[in-house]
């Protein structure tokens, strides 16, 4: 196949929270003659491309339409391919990594003191703030009030929106581009300073200092790449991988072999998650307003789970229920009466949970539920049911109870009715939020793929700058932490190049 050769000083693969941040931080080097390319597998979305059509938007934005399955087919992963990566399809929640998490990671230099000014930089850049209470819908306010009556700690999410119109379809893109992710903030800044962005450009492999990539025709009516379809060889002095926790390890494996680094692809982790629904006797109208305003971390340290407000539209909600038939029809017919909660288990990294490749070189995720994670999920169902009943729900969809609904008369029996023996992956619908690990950072090459600043062990010109760097779960929404670590990576690249910001 004929290849077109393009020369750059830095090539960044992926444009999400990691890649977009690195592009913006390195952009000032362009004025000194440095050529920087940002490669993105997906397309560039405009406001009018985000139609809020649930099935259509899932197909536009997500790998496998948001239905990427682990090898065991008992966990669904959703991650995006678009300019801006998954920052285009999350709710904008922006939380700093807790000090105790960073201390447990024990990566030299990755401390609360080092990351705090970086957090503050992106909090300011991305307009992170608390929504006014007048903007909060009843789905969120019911959650907050019930937590307070139960004596559980509840906090409001800071969000990175500007001009939010409360359309609530955040997970399907934003039709008025209110979310201040990398597609809205960092990438436009990088482009204005001379960084060259190539959409619909899939990196296939790395060969020494070259990135071999295919530019594909545009899909879904999106704007075409600035390059004609074909195979390209991007020659680069420095290469930065920011394709995410699934695709960055897979790209390294295709390039250098699965056994290239002992830790490569290993220690993948995530937040296994469930949607719990309570049916109220009156309309709740949770489908307008920002969908995610509060979280409860009362049980995070003692039982290993978080509860969050959420709102998912009919297709996503229906496929997330555990059951079928008349019960599902009944719940979905009362959509405007529903209060929804997202429960997330805090999973810790294990070497057996990993990314591998299939015969075609495509990523496969091997994930095994640990007993602590399953216990945390069962406990989260119990807590969610109690919260929903406290909020006024007349019946609650509670997987692990052996029936589709628990009713108000069951509220004092929740702990007895929701049991571990009735909670089985593959029978209970589970999805994964916040994919992390696979190129973990650390000083020991036997246990880590990169050093503390993201440079790959044994490859002085190769870096990683996304959530695959995490040595363990961050325990909260990771996007602000990804940006802070990517800021460190960019700083290290500038130092390695002998350049100042």
Describe, in plain words, how this protein is organized in 3D:
This protein has 501 residues and is of the alpha+beta class. The protein has two domains: 1-127 and 162-268 and 438-501, FAD/NAD(P)-binding domain (3-Layer(bba) Sandwich), CATH 3.50.50.60; 131-157 and 270-348 and 370-424, Cholesterol Oxidase, domain 2, CATH 3.30.410. It is built from 13 helices and 19 strands. The strands form three sheets. Strands 3, 4, 5, 10, 11, 12, 13, 16, 17 and 18 form a ten-stranded mixed sheet that branches. The longest helix has 21 residues, at 371-391. The radius of gyration is 22 Å and the shape is globular. The mean pLDDT is 96.
- Can you give the helix content as a percent range? 25-40%
Q: CATH superfamily assignment of the largest domain? A: FAD/NAD(P)-binding domain
Radius of gyration: 22 Å
Silhouette: globular
Summed up, the helix count is: 13
The CATH topology of the largest domain is given as FAD/NAD(P)-binding domain
| Ends apart, CA distance between termini | 39 Å
CATH architecture of the largest domain: 3-Layer(bba) Sandwich
CATH top level assignment of the largest domain = Alpha Beta
Enumerate the spans where pLDDT stays under 50 for 5 or more consecutive residues.
none
Kindly list the characteristics that best describe this protein:
501 residues, alpha+beta, FAD/NAD(P)-binding domain, 2 domains, ten-stranded mixed β-sheet, seven-stranded mixed β-sheet, 13 helices
